[in-house]
Amino acid sequence: MRLDASFNTFAHEIGYNLGCNYAADQGAGAGAFSYSHGCRFIGGNGQKYRTLLSYQRFPNESRIPFLSNPHARYESAAVGASMTDNSRTINETTATVA
Fold first, then answer.
1. Of 17, 24, 39, 73, which is least surrounded by CB within 10 A?
2. Beta bridge partners of 78
3. In contact, 7 and 76? CB cutoff 8 Å
4. 22 alpha carbon, distance to own chain's centre
5. pTM of the entire predicted model
6. CB neighbours (10 Å) of residue 55?
7. CA distance 87 to 2
């Protein structure tokens, strides 16, 4: 799921309401599911990136306007994995939250 950069903070906060959580390496508890975490990754260009629900941990780590999702790509790299999939979390909690 790609979001306009001007809505990053709003999307970050709404993500919590829908069961998403920080990147697992940030010591946060679990979200709605075991895979409800943000993601950090290195793009094909060698740059470090983080998804919307991840706080900066490393210098020069850029925030991208994506939720973690193993099926989405940014700079030739997947922006999630089986245990970092906040897009799936939102798809599975939306009806309950509504």
1. 17
2. 73
3. no
4. 7
5. 0.86
6. 13
7. 10
